[in-house]
Design brief:
The chain has 439 residues and is mainly beta. The chain has a single domain, classed as Beta Barrel (Porin), CATH 2.40.160.40. 5% of the residues lie in helices and 56% in strands. The chain contains 2 helices and 23 strands. The chain has a 16-stranded antiparallel β-barrel with strand order 1-2-3-6-7-8-9-12-13-16-17-18-19-21-22-23. Strands 15-14-20 form a 3-stranded mixed β-sheet, with no helix packed on it. A two-stranded antiparallel ribbon has the order 4-5. Strand 7 and strand 8 form a beta hairpin.
Length: 439
């Protein structure tokens, strides 16, 4: 079991979480069987004893962001039980990114983060304000080394670096696992430490300041996070494996999204201005996760996972996910449908709009829809086919995955008279298509 805390830049966190989840579901460790091959000696030597998982994902939100993400994961298990793993990811995102402002019955004009006149954009009446010039790229590399130091104990250490034009992240992690009960039970403990450096385009805005004044600070911002995980994996029967873990992580520092604003609405429902969001400078999350995998027979297996998360921002979330895998009788092919249900409550300071034109809000507030109350369903299916292997490999595997995501907002507040009839809480629909090759 490996500790893996996922924290991304605020403006792309939702998109990257979905890409990462799909990639992690595809990229499974484990070396393939060996046999003689007619592949050229050079290629055979290059691939000797290494397992390679690769994937290419395409993600598209309806009318918003689209992304392409290739992933490569390379691992090797040594004769003495040590294992080494390296991975690399590249993200390319583009499209329209909501800026947090509310739709209006009048046209609204905003500036992209550069603040240049050439990057001004106007939103038509009734439309959700979104920056059409949004684009971003990210390169991430990581590695992990696992060493058994007794027959029943092993230690794992790892690191990850992620870089984009306005964000840099460095993470280190370590974990220890102990087997007992004739190796039917594994107890593990891990710790993760992350350092993030943010350099928003144009500078980081003063939290809660007037958007029209563009009052910004010079220099970048930072945040730090540390997390711990305690888990147990239990072999229940020869066909049933159960895993349970609890985790806590805490982040401090600059936790705002520097590109999000909140609309200030007058009594008639007209837009009187905007202000930059303001979030607390610390956040603690606690979660519990339980997963059960059962092989019912040679052809059918299932995996059911449940997760509960709460934080000191007032967000509570529940997640349930079910995988069914059905293999053909020759086990050369399988199909895996999946369904995922998610629900969360809103953050205490989630504020879709501000109804006070006389003064700016005090305390914390954010109109970021990712902090609101919503539920979501994801439907997906994966098809995999075994192929002839490469080098010393007995076989390889080609797979295709497709997923559909639909998000619906809950607990919608009262709408000012002048804004009634407008869709102030638009949901989200997205598709993800992924192809993978493991050898």
């Amino acid at each position: 079991m490996q500790l893996k805390l996922k924290v991304s830049p605020a403006k792309t966190a939702r998109t990257r979480r979905r890409l990462m989840a799909a990639s992690c579901a595809l990229l499974s460790a484990g070396a393939a069987r060996s046999q003689e091959s007619s592949v050229a000696p050079a290629a055979s030597g290059l691939l000797e004893d290494w397992s390679v998982d690769s994937a290419l994902a395409y993600y598209h939100e309806d009318g918003r962001v689209q992304a392409i993400e290739p992933v490569v994961d390379v691992s090797k298990v040594f004769a003495d039980g040590q294992s080494l793993n390296f991975n690399a990811t590249f993200d390319a995102l583009s499209g329209a990114s909501p800026n947090g402002a509310l739709p209006s019955r009048s046209p609204q004009t905003f500036a992209s983060p550069s603040g240049k006149a050439a990057h001004m954009y106007t939103i038509a009446p009734g439309q959700l304000p979104a920056d059409p010039h949004y684009h971003d790229t990210r390169v991430a590399v990581g590695g992990n080394w696992t060493v058994p130091f007794t027959r029943v104990d092993q230690v794992s250490v790892g690191a990850k670096l992620s870089d984009e034009h306005d964000f840099f992240s460095a993470t280190v992690n370590a974990s220890i696992a102990h087997d007992f009960n004739e190796k039917n039970t594994t107890l593990s403990f891990g710790i993760d430490n992350e350092y993030d450096s943010l350099h928003p385009i144009g500078g980081a805005p003063v939290a809660g300041s007037d958007y029209a004044l563009i009052e910004k600070q010079t220099g970048g911002k930072t945040k730090d996070g540390v997390g711990v995980l305690l888990g147990v994996t239990q072999v229940m029967t020869r066909n049933w494996l159960s895993e349970f873990n609890i985790s806590v992580d805490r982040f401090t520092g600059y936790l705002n999204d520097p590109y999000k604003i909140t609309s200030i609405i007058n009594s008639a429902g007209g837009t009187a201005g905007y202000e930059f969001e303001s979030r607390p400078d610390q956040r603690t999350r606690k979660s519990a996760y339980w997963e059960n995998r059962v092989a019912w027979n040679q052809q059918l297996s299932t995996a059911l996972s449940l997760r509960y998360m709460s934080d000191d921002w007032g967000i509570r979330s529940d997640t349930a996910q079910l995988h069914l895998r059905w293999s053909w009788s020759n086990r050369e092919r399988y199909i895996e449908p999946t369904i995922r249900w998610y629900r969360q409550t809103a953050a205490d300071f989630y504020t879709p709009f501000i109804l006070d034109t006389a003064k700016q809000s005090t305390g914390f507030e954010s109109a970021d829809s990712r902090l609101g109350a919503f539920h979501a369903l994801t439907y997906g299916v994966k098809y995999a086919q075994k192929l002839p292997g490469l080098g010393s490999r007995a076989e390889s595997e080609f797979s295709v995955r497709a997923e559909y995501y639909q998000q619906t907002f809950d607990e919608r507040g009262p709408v000012p008279t002048g804004l009634q009839g407008l869709d102030l809480y638009p949901g989200l629909k997205a598709i993800l298509v992924q192809i993978g090759w493991r050898f």
